[in-house]
């Protein structure tokens, strides 16, 4: 975490299936979401490929990654926190069945659905089951800030346990936001199975763990943990965001008049006075590190900075240490209003303590040249000017809590969409210029109102994703929202496949990948048309496909079901090479 050059963990790598296992089902949560990051995660979950590999640039690989995983993933995010992508693509249509939006049920507009979590169920060749639990401080985005992640795996046993009751309750809470009956049933099955899953810390340091879910009843809340109720001997806190009353509470629960450590962002320090944190040494990331690794995005020409985003709390009392990791900031909303997920790890103080952690965090010396952090003089903190963007975020929060729904209406060879928004008050939004458009046809931009219509969309432009634009003075915020639509054409996803597999070359590459997880390289002719033979264009590759099909028939005959679907979907598109269907039918006769 602390040395991005040596210790930066690839998000995708923690999602890879174990050797000889494949994904059965994945439940994930995030506060904010980047659609391209979700595509990358689907590659990792379904195809065991790195999210930053060349596969992310190839639509054929992406198509198969999303098709193979869309039924196996349920991803829950805060409603109104899907980022607008750099280059919207029809492939996002395949994400609609993966994403479920969650609203914190509290009336407070500042409350959020904020957990960052994965529970993955893998099945092996011998039908054995492995669960992987992942808790993060990182959202499913391309943010470059410093985060922390914890993972552990578990196996199914014959002995029943209540160790996972909080985890099961959290999944039960997520189900209320699921709009897919098949995935809801799968999540219920996982809840039942968790009673027999034994997770293994596999650690020589930590003795035990406890799941903490905040904002879902009181039984497993962080508010009942010693971290917030008992005095401490030594304390370490890393949090990007904080509230004055929370830090003052920590400051007052000091047993030994020792100095605690607080690491936060510079922008958060203006909320504190020196007396609020008198028992803390306060640190922030050095400016040279925040600015020194800037990356300019090719698409947006934006400077992508980094800062801390990890949330960690280590509390020592007597001979015990408690280490808390996850999504919870040291803020009032996080503790008392938000939905959050944390894990607590316990250890003997002699094995894991604040001094050990601080030595690692500061690279051996708090004030040393190699430390990534610098001590802050709280008497010299300057106020940070208010950002009007926060007001726009609140407007988005209010808008997504409206009951917005729609329907698709066939209009000759095109389609129209009608949206209706209920429970809204024009007074809430009258100071703002608010517009909405379909994600895949952004030119159809209309004013947000009770009734909205979008005309003459093609089938491939139909999507449940819409773009909300909120303008105020010189500020502008843009978010993606998913709005349920009635009357969506059933073959719409097949159109996505046809748009990508649009010629014989693409067909051959897709089939080769489907059968063997690799390309057939097809060098072009001198005129760029691709190789030919007297038997027809691309027929020279049928022997290679034959070899792959022969191996597949022996090792994984179920893949021929996918080939059947592919042929039926593309049969009218004139992209299937001459001779391929005859070859396929020969294998089907043998397999039958």
Contiguous runs where pLDDT drops below 50 for at least 5 residues? 1-5, 293-303, 519-540
Distance between the termini: 54 Å
Number of helices: 17
Rg value: 27 Å
Strand order, largest beta sheet: 9-17-16-15-10-11-12-18
Largest sheet, strands/sense/barrel: 8 strands, mixed
Oligomer: single chain
Residue-averaged pLDDT, rounded?
86
Range of strand content = 25-35%
The coarse overall form would be globular
Number of strands: 26
Structural class by secondary-structure content: alpha+beta
Helix content: 25-40%
Describe this structure in words.
By secondary structure, the protein is α+β, with helices and mostly antiparallel strands. It has 17 helices and 26 strands. Strands 9-17-16-15-10-11-12-18 form an eight-stranded mixed beta sheet. The protein has a seven-stranded mixed beta sheet with strand order 4-2-1-5-6-7-8, with helices on both faces. A five-stranded antiparallel beta sheet has the order 3-25-24-21-22, covered by helices on one side. Helix 14 packs parallel to helix 15 and helix 15 (542-555) runs parallel beside helix 17.
